[in-house]
UniProtKB/TrEMBL annotation:
Domain of life: Bacteria
Pfam families (alphabetical): BPD_transp_1 (PF00528)
Matching SUPFAM superfamilies: MetI-like (SSF161098)
Protein's name in the database: sn-glycerol-3-phosphate transport system permease protein UgpE
Organism: Salibaculum griseiflavum
Entry keyword set: Cell inner membrane, Cell membrane, Membrane, Transmembrane, Transmembrane helix, Transport
Length: 277
C-alpha cells in the first residue's frame, strides 16, 4: 500500500469521527448519574468519558417506565412492515417485469407517479379512512399504510428485468409454471435486492415518527421514536438527562446491529445493479 492510501484513510477518518461525536456523547451521558448531570455546569461532566460511571440509567430503564413496551412496539411494527413490503414489492415487481396482463403499462405508470407524491400529502385521507374503520391505536394501523411502497416495487422490477429470460424459458420447457418459477428460481436470485429492500424498510419503519404521531394517541401504542419525543418534549417530568440518553442508546442498537450483520447484502445489490446497468 502506498502512502496516498494512508492519507486517504486519515482524511476520511476525520469527518467520520466528527459524525460519531454526538453518538459517543449520547453514550457517555447515558452512563453518568442524573444528579451529577443536573447540578453541574462543568464541561468535563459532559465530555466523552463518563465520569463518574454508573449503569443505573439502564437498570431503571427496564425496571420502570414504558420504554421497553415502546421498544417492543417498534419491533413489531418494523418487522410487520418489512414482511409486508417484501411480499407486495416482490410479487408486484415480478408481475410487472415478466408477466403480460391487461393495463400493465397503466399500473406501471401509476407506480412511477407514486414516487413523486410526498407521503405527507396522503396523511389526511389515510387518517380519515382508518378513523372510519376504527383502526387507530392499533398495530395494523401503524403497519398497513406503509406496505405498498412504490420505490420497493420499482427496485424489484428493475432487478427482475435484469435477470436473463433464458432461465425462465428453460424452466418452462420443463413444464414448470410461473408460480413455481417465481418461488424457486426468481426469489433466490433476487435475495440481494430483497435484503437491501428489507434493511431500508426496517430502518425507515424504526425511525418513522410522523405517521405514529398521527395514528397512535394512546401511550401503549407509541413506538420508540414517538415515546422518546414525548419524554423530551416534557423534559421537566422525565427521569433525567441520563435516562433520556440511555433510551436513545437502546433505540439505536437494533439499527446498528442490523446494518453490521447485513451490510454485505447491500454491497452485493449495489455492485450487481451497477454491473448489470
Amino acid at each position: 500500500m502506498n502512502r496516498g492510501y494512508y492519507w486517504l484513510v486519515i482524511a476520511l477518518s476525520i469527518p467520520a469521527f466528527i459524525w460519531l461525536v454526538p453518538t459517543l456523547w449520547m453514550v457517555s451521558l447515558s452512563f453518568q448519574p442524573n444528579d451529577v448531570l443536573a447540578r453541574t455546569t462543568s464541561s468535563t461532566a459532559f465530555g466523552l468519558v463518563p465520569l463518574p460511571f454508573t449503569a443505573d440509567n439502564y437498570a431503571a430503564l427496564f425496571t420502570f417506565g414504558q420504554t421497553p413496551w415502546w421498544f417492543l412496539n417498534s419491533l413489531i411494527v418494523s418487522l410487520g412492515m418489512t414482511l409486508g413490503v417484501l411480499a407486495v414489492s416482490t410479487t408486484a415487481g415480478y408481475a410487472l417485469a415478466r408477466l403480460d396482463f391487461p393495463f400493465k403499462r397503466t399500473i406501471l405508470v401509476i407506480c412511477l407517479v407514486g414516487l413523486m407524491v410526498p407521503e405527507q400529502a396522503v396523511f389526511i385521507p389515510l387518517y380519515t379512512m382508518f378513523a372510519d374503520l376504527g383502526w387507530h391505536n392499533s398495530y395494523h394501523a401503524l403497519i398497513l399504510p406503509r406496505m405498498a411502497v412504490p420505490i420497493g416495487v420499482f427496485l424489484m422490477l428493475q432487478f427482475f428485468r435484469a435477470i436473463p429470460q433464458d432461465i425462465e424459458e428453460a424452466a418452462r420447457l420443463d413444464g414448470v409454471g410461473w408460480l413455481r418459477i417465481f418461488w424457486y428460481i426468481m426469489l433466490p436470485l433476487a435475495r440481494p435486492a430483497m435484503m437491501t429492500l428489507a434493511i431500508l424498510t426496517f430502518l425507515y419503519a424504526w425511525n418513522d415518527y410522523l405517521w405514529p404521531l398521527v395514528s397512535a394517541q394512546q401511550r401503549e401504542y407509541f413506538t420508540i421514536t414517538l415515546g422518546l419525543a414525548s419524554i423530551q418534549s416534557n423534559f421537566a417530568q422525565s427521569e433525567g438527562l441520563g435516562r433520556v440518553m440511555a433510551s436513545g442508546v437502546i433505540a439505536s442498537l437494533p439499527v446498528v446491529i442490523l446494518f453490521l450483520i447485513f451490510q454485505r447484502y447491500v454491497v452485493q445489490a449495489m455492485t450487481a445493479g451497477g454491473s448489470k446497468g
